[in-house]
DNA sequence: ACAATAGGTCAATTTTTTTTGACTACCCTG
DNA sequence: CAGGGTAGTCAAAAAAAATTGACCTATTGT
């Protein structure tokens, strides 16, 4: 399908609007995320959806994936600077809810 | 389906993320909107989608519908105060795009 | 060695969103 | 009174997003 891209905020807005993204984002502000922990934290979600959401947030440059090579050897997702720049946007949205 | 509503920004975010909403919003900042004009302005859109988007934006309290009872007798959609409060949110989003 | 945990992928299905086309009804102009 | 503009609605179809269940690999703990 032909994407025409008129409004500059549209793409970002659409990317953020997936069913679990806002919640993932909110949790990422509190602490680094881990996949299975997230799966347990967000009731009603599922692997596939979380995997897709995390990948898209990563591709958008809002989260970054790090392999922690010590002790239990796991993966962490952290907010990037661009991600942190979105915090006030969420706060404003919450203020209007 | 059971909606659980965890993140407060989620509902608003989802409501704003429809395919044509950002563009409708952007145009509404410039001037009052009229249905058929919008249909011509937003290439690729269609009646049904615009009607749905306008209704949802209205229900959310971001736009208000007014019947202009003079001259050509038509309907206008204008940004409400709540709608105007969203302008800086869009600006921030555009800044990050 | 065995089972559990972590972090996923894939294909198929279901649900939601968007689009299409047909159809209304009310003015206004020539 | 015919044609055009305005502002829609409705049902059906198509497209996109979300969910399910099976499967997979690697690392740990016992």
Automatic annotation (TrEMBL), chains A, B:
Give the signal peptide range: none
The record ties this protein, via SUPFAM superfamilies, to: Winged helix' DNA-binding domain (SSF46785)
Listed A to Z, the keywords are: DNA-binding, Transcription, Transcription regulation
Q: Name one Pfam family in it.
A: HxlR
Domain spans labelled HTH hxlR-type:
7-97
Q: Does the keyword Transcription regulation apply?
A: yes
UniProt cross-references to Gene3D superfamilies, sorted A to Z: Winged helix-like DNA-binding domain superfamily/Winged helix DNA-binding domain
Which PROSITE patterns does the annotation name?
HTH_HXLR
Q: What is this protein called?
A: Winged helix-turn-helix transcriptional regulator
């Amino acid at each position: 399908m032909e994407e025409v891209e008129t409004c500059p905020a549209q793409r970002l807005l659409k990317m953020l609007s997936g069913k679990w993204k806002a919640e993932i984002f909110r949790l990422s502000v509190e602490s680094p995320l881990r996949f299975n922990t997230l799966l347990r934290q967000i009731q009603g979600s599922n692997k596939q959806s979380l995997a897709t959401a995390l990948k898209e947030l990563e591709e958008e440059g809002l989260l970054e994936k790090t392999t922690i090579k010590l002790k239990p050897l796991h993966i962490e997702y952290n907010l990037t600077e661009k991600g942190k720049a979105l915090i006030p946007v969420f706060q404003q949205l919450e203020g209007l809810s």
